[in-house]
Amino acid sequence: MQVTMTVNGNEVSEEIEPRHLLVHFIRDQLGLTGTHWGCDTSNCGTCVVLIDGEPTKSCTTLAAMTGGHEVTTVEGLEVDNVLDPVQEGFMQCHGLQCGFCTPGMMLTARALLDSNPNPSEDVIREAISGQICRCTGYSTIVRSIQWAAEHESAVSIGSPA
Amino acid sequence: MQVPAPFEYERATSVEQAIALRERLGEEARFIAGGHSLLPMMKLRLANPEYLIDINDCTELFYITEDADQIRIGAMTRHRELLDSALLAQHFPIFRDAEKVIADPVVRNRGTLGGSLCQADPSEDLSAVCATLDASCVIKSTTGERVVSMHDFHVGPYETAVGDAEMLTEIRIPLKPNGSSAYEKVERRAGDWAVVSAGAAVWMDGATIAEGRVGLAAVGANTTSIGPVSEILRGATPSEELYQQAGEAAAANCSPQTDQRGTAEYKTHLAMELTKRALRRSVTRANGQEA
Questions:
Q1: Which of B151, B177, B220, B288 lies most in the core, judged by the most C-beta atoms within 10 Å?
Q2: Which residue in B83, B104, B188 has the most chain A C-beta atoms within 10 A of its own C-beta, making it the best mutation to test that interface?
């Protein structure tokens, strides 16, 4: 079947098998390997992408179901060589060690700040609670998101919110 | 790599179209809502539909509204909306209690009320919530609609009253005066399936309980509503002794199995203890005190 969707602002149209999962469509068919493929069971959250601005586990979503919708992957956070404040925050506050969970963490953070520009630490921890950092670097991830909230520019970028 | 076996994909944009597709494609077709129960089952080959009918574009099924004497919830209403709904929090705080501990925020962005009920997993929380609130389910077909109680909706584990050419479209919860509710869950780790959960709802008449209901999850089939507990609570005055009596009745009317989440003995104990806690909290809330 043919599926057409918007990925990071660009329309893509591809021939797929209906059983093709969104994570594999993004990685293998579009070549956007920033979206990581982890547990395959919707537990770890490294495959999180934004669908119409909402964090979604792409290992448990069919590419076919995403047809007609807007997908944002980690590659869509940076615009014109300017990092999203969330990316900047992860850099400034050492929000990653091995980096495997980072794409999903950053996208969830982006969606959180779009809906709540000034979240408390508890709200941040709840928002990322569907994602696992096996380096256990949660404290620095939380600090990175707080840094982003504090340094958010007036215009939010990188998300269709 | 875990991927589902091959199937054909159809997308419905209205309930009418969804039911027509289901009728045409027959028993090998399944609706897919959020997909967070069905797709894992398909990856494991525990479900092998030949056709999936995507109902995420059926926008008429996304709502939570208040009628004169009931709250109506569209089957595609997602967990996140159930958690965030001020209307539900006002009338049925059990929803917020339960939703806070169902999976995680990202999964709650996709999973739906109708999908959860149709999955009919004995460990699933919303079935116990809806049964505790004495909800009923609206099931539509090309020839009309019927309304069944939660008791009749669940035929058994993973089995519901929804036929091959039918669709669950709405959940109705009666509004009765002076009521409140609560949900208690014990899980091994955040977002896991329950070891045991208990929901309770009470409707007061002055200082006595006019009606009370308890529903359990993860303790066997047909425990989403415990009839004998309702008998004990009817017309009774709230007290620790009453909660103990109700808890013991709940424990006596469930049939948990020993598994990796705990022994049958431990789960039976939890059924009693969580019933007591949920009832205590429901009564406190019904009396206007936050709990």
A1: B220
A2: B104
